[in-house]
Amino acid sequence: MMYKIAVIPGDGIGKEVMEACLNVLDTLDLNLNYEFGEAGDECLKEYGVALPKETINIVKNSDACLFGAVGESAADVIVKLRHVLNLYANLRPVKSYPGTNALFDDLDFIIVRENTEGMYVGEEEYTDDGAIAKRIITRHASERICDFAFKYARDNKKKVTGVHKANVLKKTDGLFKKVFYEVSDKYNDIESEDYHVDATAMYLLTRPQSFDVIVTTNLFGDILSDEGAGLVGGLGLIPSGNIGENNALFEPVHGSAPDIAGKGLANPTAMLLSAVMMLKYLNEQENAELLNNAILDTLKEGKYLTSDMGGKSSTMEMANQIKNKLL
Ligand code: NAI
Ligand code: MG
């Protein structure tokens, strides 16, 4: 089967990890037809627009999209793509792998982040003495994301934790919490619980093993997933999938990392694990498994790791090692 894959490398290490990823994907017995789209800071500089219409159309018409990372234009590119394509569920698995600098070696939970509203609706305005940002929570989007989380739990896990700040944000998060329990009533076989986001931030450090599926609003999900990355060895290891009704986009959780860009230091694992998520989404289970195992074997061996994991290899050296396992 032939798949149309939209590829948006972006800026900084986005380009580097994407090159490494495509180099590895070439080894699999797959018919991937890449269509490249420009977006990000460099695109803005060159064409005056951070996310050209053509790029949106390439993603719209694809079977799936691989996205590297962009820089300062993230709000106008990735946040906009999630809105425009209604990629409402952002899945961010947090998993410990052997061979990494994970603080905990026994973690396997997933953050399901609402991706279309909350604090990231982009409605900010200046006032005389500062600025105001709108935070929108709707019943529709809350129901949709909670339902997604419980369905995911039914297939893969046992418990869903709803995370909010309903004690202070009584109307917005009050609604999110209410809807969370309404949806949970439809899934009697799945355990449910809820916590405030600040307490959750602590529990993630004190007893992260107790989490299975966390469902939360946009900003909280963004913050908690970087905390999750910190628990298992850093942002170089966390992939993600942005899933909608008609489209899906897969990207590492990290950004363009200007501090290490251009030096070949970026860990390609998060990008490659995002490709694994994409292959699963495309129902290419066998290829997903092969790629996943090649990545895990390389981490476990520990000989070809990038410096964030304590190794000496470059992005491409590590990717080539993963590739060699697939030949
Ligand atoms: P960042 O994720 O780019 O970097 C945070 C830290 O993690 C840095 O120390 C970086 O060196 C390290 N890191 C990230 N990915 C790594 C990898 N693959 N291997 C090794 N180390 C890695 O986040 P930061 O610094 O907050 O933002 C930098 C730029 O990225 C900003 O312009 C921001 O707007 C953008 N950004 C874009 C995102 C996207 O395109 N989805 C997401 C997050 C940030
Ligand atoms: Mg983030």
Short description:
Helices cover 41% and strands 21% of the residues. With 327 residues, the protein is α/β, with parallel strands linked by helices. The longest helix has 18 residues, at 139-156.
The average pLDDT score comes to 97
Rg (C-alpha, Å):
19 Å
Structural domains: how many: 2
Largest sheet: 10 strands, mixed
> Separation of termini?
21 Å
The CATH architecture term of the largest domain is 3-Layer(aba) Sandwich
* Strand adjacency order, main sheet: 2-1-3-12-11-4-5-10-8-9
Counted beta strands = 12
The CATH topology of the largest domain, please? Answer: Isopropylmalate Dehydrogenase
Q: What structural class should be given to the helix and strand makeup?
A: alpha/beta
The CATH homologous superfamily of the largest domain is named Isopropylmalate Dehydrogenase
Shape: globular
> Which spans of ≥5 residues are poorly predicted at pLDDT below 50?
none
Order of helices and strands: EHEHHEHEEEEHEHEHEHEEHHH
CATH uppermost class of the largest domain? Alpha Beta
Name the hetero compounds present: 1,4-dihydronicotinamide adenine dinucleotide, magnesium ion
Percentage of residues in helical conformation: 40-55%
How much of the polypeptide forms β-strand, as a percent range?
A: 15-25%
Helical element count?
A: 11
Walkthrough of the structure:
- The protein is α/β, with parallel strands linked by helices and 327 residues long.
- It has 2 domains: 1-98 and 232-327, 3-Layer(aba) Sandwich (Isopropylmalate Dehydrogenase), CATH 3.40.718; 132-231, 3-Layer(aba) Sandwich (Rossmann fold), CATH 3.40.50.
- The protein has 11 helices and 12 strands.
- The protein has helices at residues 13-25, 41-47, 53-60, 74-84, 139-156, 172-184, 197-206, 218-231, 269-281, 285-301, 315-324, and strands at residues 2-10, 31-36, 64-69, 89-95, 108-114, 124-127, 130-133, 159-164, 191-196, 213-216, 239-243, 248-252.
- It has a 10-stranded mixed beta sheet with strand order 2-1-3-12-11-4-5-10-8-9, with helices on both faces. Strands 6-7 form a two-stranded antiparallel sheet.
- Strand 6 and strand 7 (130-133) form a beta hairpin.
- Helix 7 (197-206) runs parallel beside helix 8 and helix 9 runs antiparallel to helix 10 (285-301).
- The radius of gyration is 19 Å and the shape is globular.
- The model has no long low-confidence stretch (mean pLDDT 97).
- The structure holds 1,4-dihydronicotinamide adenine dinucleotide and magnesium ion.
- 1,4-dihydronicotinamide adenine dinucleotide binds at residues 13, 17, 69-72, 74, 78, 235-236, 251, 254-260, 266-267, 270, 308.
- Magnesium ion is lined by residues 222, 226.
